[in-house]
Amino acid sequence: MRILSLGNTLETYLVIAALLFGLGIYGLLNRRTLIGLLISAELLLSGASLNFMAFGRFLAPDPTTGQVFTLFIMGIAAAEAAIALSIIIAVYRNYKSIDTEDLEELQG
Amino acid sequence: MSSLFTAEGLGGLLFLFIVAVTLAGGLIATNSVRLPRAVSGLALCLIGVAGLYYYLSSPFLAAMEILIYVGAVCVTIVFAIMLADPCDEKRPGRQNALSAALSFGVAGLLVWGLVLLATTTMWPAPAVKINEGSVKVIGESLLTTYSMVFELISVVLLMAIIGALALARVGRDKQ
User: Fold this and answer.
1) Burial B36-47 (b: 16+ CB within 10 A, else e)
2) What's the ipTM?
């Protein structure tokens, strides 16, 4: 039953993190609203921190490094979400829309 | 070699379930048209990631993931959806099939490269682990080795709070 011990190998976590990262990139390129872009950015960040956690658990001599780095990523992500959402609210007040195709004032 | 009906076997089964929850949540978050559904998918995906952190022998980070991401970030996004009232579904047919295919291609190439890199590299195992990575050790290293970063991230969070207040305040008295 090799499939049941997948949780003990580094490659499993790296593949899952790569899939999360790819989903985030796909959402960033495909989404049309600013909130959708923010959700995709959160997926990107969680993929990156899963990578840090996996390397810290399996490869680093000091297992705290990966966990501390992931904590800092969480703090940065919270700050990023707060700033991005207040920008979205301000954009909505000015344009009455948060669709990326309506925000074209700088488009020549 | 572990059978299904041992502790390791059931743990492995639960791991597969958590992986499925994570990927399904990510798919819902990126592919659903309505934004509340996308936020629910994001919450599901982040709960799954918290489960993966638990399997990476870090229950503290799993609790923090649920507390910060599911409890704070997702709820804030829901508040922003209520305030901004996005109308994604009102204009269908605008979604270009070519752009969807292109972004799927770019993301697929990226995932393919990363997976190839992860599976073909020989990762060297560390010779010795200097501690067990418990909550006590994390707390000590946060306040000794990483104390500068710890203080800096407090400043960043303070600036984010002030900046968010200032940004959301602009334009309120125009209407």
Assistant:
1) eebbbbbbbbbb
2) 0.90
Distance CA B146, CA B138 (A): 10
- Is A43 in contact with B29 (Cβ distance < 8 A)? yes
Contact B153 A75 (CB under 8 A): yes
pLDDT at B94 > cutoff 80: no
Quick: pLDDT tens for B14-64: 999 999 999 999 999 998 888 899 999 999 999 999 999 999 989 999 999
Cα–Cα distance, A8 to A58 (Å, whole number): 9
Report how far residue A17's alpha carbon sits from residue A52's, in angstroms, rounded to the nearest whole number.
10
Q: How many of the other CB atoms lie within 10 Å of CB of B28?
A: 18
- All residue ranges of chain A with pLDDT < 50 are none
- Does residue A99 sit in helix, strand or coil? strand
Give the residue from B28, B89, B111, B136 with the most A CB atoms within 10 Å of its CB, the best one to mutate: B111
Rounded to two decimals, the pTM is 0.89
How far is A105 from chain B, CA to nearest CA, in Å? Answer: 18
> In terms of CA atoms, which chain A residue is nearest residue B113?
A18
Return the amino acid letter for B5.
F
User: B30, A79: Cβ pair inside 8 Å?
Assistant: no
pLDDT given at position A17: 94
How near does any CA of chain B get to the CA of A95, in Å?
Answer: 11
Chain B residues 86-115 with CB within 8 Å of chain A: 86-88, 94-95, 99-100, 102-104, 106-108, 110-111, 114-115
Q: Give pLDDT, residue A5.
A: 77
Buried b (16+ CB within 10 A) or exposed e, A69-106: bbbbbbbebbbbbbbbbbbbbbbbbeeebbbeeeeeee
Q: Is the pLDDT of residue B78 over 80?
A: yes
